[in-house]
Design a protein that fits this description.
By secondary structure, this protein is of the alpha+beta class. It contains six helices and six strands, in the order H-H-H-E-E-H-E-E-H-E-E-H. It folds into two domains: about 45 residues, Winged helix-like DNA-binding domain superfamily/Winged helix DNA-binding domain (Arc Repressor Mutant, subunit A), CATH 1.10.10.10; about 100 residues, 2-Layer Sandwich (Alpha-Beta Plaits).
Length: about 160
């Protein structure tokens, strides 16, 4: 069970995932051993992941694209297939106008066209899409592993 102290630890780690346990303990007025045990418990339970995140503004020629997808089938039938497409950062089922929303990274209109026309629309059950190019990203962290794979493919 996650309690208020766990939440406080997670909040501190969200600003700096490499913050030493001793510093967290000092700021939260608890022992370092307690902090270490709580972090281990949170990680082991899957409630917390400590990862590297990329600031996308450092890569001005790479665009984040959000694609709303309307289906003719249940979203659960296609979510995994869409998530495994190249350049997908993540995808999720949603309520409202779309069945699935997928977030991609692209480096050109041609790449975006290929993703929409050849990859997404070739999936049986996809009815329509609506695409949004992100102009400014505030607060959406991008996993360094996935983003770095994409960046390395550009060079």
């Amino acid at each position: 069970m996650i309690d208020a102290n766990d939440v406080r630890i997670m909040k501190m780690l969200s600003s700096n995932g490499r913050m030493p346990n001793a510093e967290i303990a000092r700021k939260l007025e608890m022992s370092e051993a307690t902090v270490r045990q709580r972090i281990k418990k949170l990680i082991d339970s899957g409630a917390l992941k400590i990862t590297a995140q990329i600031d996308t503004t450092v890569f001005p020629d790479v665009f984040i694209v959000v694609v709303g997808i309307i289906l003719n089938v249940l979203p659960e039938d296609l979510l995994e297939q869409i998530t495994t497409l190249p350049n997908v950062l993540f995808s999720f089922t949603v309520t409202g106008r779309y069945d699935i929303v997928a977030v991609f990274v692209v480096n050109s209109r041609q790449m975006l066209s290929e993703i929409i026309e050849s990859q997404i629309h070739s999936i049986q059950g996809v009815n329509r899409t609506e695409t949004f190019v992100v102009l400014k990203n505030v607060g959406m962290d991008i996993d360094a592993g996935k983003y770095s794979d994409f960046i390395s493919n550009l060079t």
